[in-house]
Amino acid sequence: MNPLTTRRMETKLDQLQQRIDFIKAIDALKEVQRKTCLFSESRYENSAEHSWAVATFALTLADYAPSGTEINRVIHMLLLHDIVEVDAGDTLCYDEEGSKDKAQREQAAADRLFGMLPTKTAQHFRTLWDEFEAEETAEAKFANALDRMIPVLHNLDTGGKAWIENSVTFDQVIAKNQKIGRSSPALWNYLLPRIQRAHQDGWLL
Amino acid sequence: MNPLTTRRMETKLDQLQQRIDFIKAIDALKEVQRKTCLFSESRYENSAEHSWAVATFALTLADYAPSGTEINRVIHMLLLHDIVEVDAGDTLCYDEEGSKDKAQREQAAADRLFGMLPTKTAQHFRTLWDEFEAEETAEAKFANALDRMIPVLHNLDTGGKAWIENSVTFDQVIAKNQKIGRSSPALWNYLLPRIQRAHQDGWLL
Ligand SMILES: [Ca+2]
C-alpha cells in the first residue's frame, strides 16, 4: 500500500474515532439532572432522556409546526440542544441568577464538545446549536416551543411540582411560555386555559 | 359558530390530546432498565436515554451509512424503536429464552401504544417500527447496526461488564453483531479487531 493510501485510511479511521469519542463524551448528559420529574413522579428526569422525549414529541407534533417548517432540522436541533449541559449543567429558565453567566458557560461547552468532532461535522452541529439558541428561524422557534411545552405539561400533570419547588409564579409561567403561541397558536391555545385554571385553583400563585 | 366548525375544532383538539397522551404514556420508557451501563459505569442505562444516544449517533455517523440512505428515516426509527418496551420490557439480544415470546409481546405493545395516536400518525409510526423490525431496507439495516454497535462500544470500554454479567461468549458477540458489517463495513472494521483483542486478552471467552 502506498503511503498516501495509508494516510487516507488512517484519517478516515481517526475521524470515526473522533465521532465515537464524541458519543462517549456526551453520554454524561444522562447524569445531568433537570428540575422536572418523570410523569410517574418516581424521580427527576435527566437531560438525555428529556432530549429523546422532546425529539419524539417533535415527530409526533409535526403537523402543528407552521407550514414550511423542516421538521427534521427541528429534530436534529432537539437531539443536540442540551449537549452543552455536559459541561455547563442545567439552568432552570426561571433562574435569573444562574442565567447570567449561562450563555458564556454554554459557549465554552459548545467549543469543547463540538470541537471533538471532525471539522465538517463540528461546524454542522455548532450551526444547528447556534440556530436553536438564536430562536430566529421557524425551525428554531418550533424546537424551543416544544422544549418549553414539555415541562409545562409535566407541571400541569403533577400539581405544579417543579413550579412550587422553585417558587415559580403564574406571571413567570406566562412570560416565559407565551412565545409558544408565536410558533404554534394551537399548542398555546391548549396550554393557556390549563395554566389559568392552575392559577384559579390556587396551586400556581 | 356553526356546529360543523365546532365539531372540526373539537376533533383537532382531540387529536392534540391524543398526541399528548401518547407522549405521557411513552414517558415510562425512562423507567425501563437495560443490561448496559453508562460509559461512566455509575448505573445501568434506561431505554429512553439509550434512544437519544443512538439517534444522536445516527446523526453523527450519517457519512458511514451506505450511499442513498435516508438518514432522517433512520433517526425516526431510532426514536421509536424501543417504545414497545414500555409494555414488553427490555430483552437482551443474547437471551434465547426471553426472545421466544418477545415478538408477540412487542406486537401487542405496538398495537396499544401506537393505537393511542390519531389514525394517520399511528399508521406512520407503526410502519416505521415494522420497517425497523424487518431489517430489510437500507435505513432499517443501518438503524439496527447502530443499535447493536452502542452496547458493543459500552462493553469494549468497561472490560465487558454486561457480557460477563450475562455470560455472553465471543462466538455469540460475533454471531449477533457481524451484520453491522453488511450495513457499514467501516463500522465493523473498527469493531472486529477490538472484539478479537478482548477475546485474546481473556475477558471475552
Ligand atoms: Ca435545557
Automatic annotation (TrEMBL), chains A, B:
It holds the Pfam family HD_3. Residues 26-188 form the HD domain. Keywords: Hydrolase, Metal-binding. One of its GO terms (molecular function) is hydrolase activity. Gene3D superfamilies: Hypothetical protein af1432. It comes from the Bacteria. This is HD family hydrolase. It comes from Rubritalea spongiae.
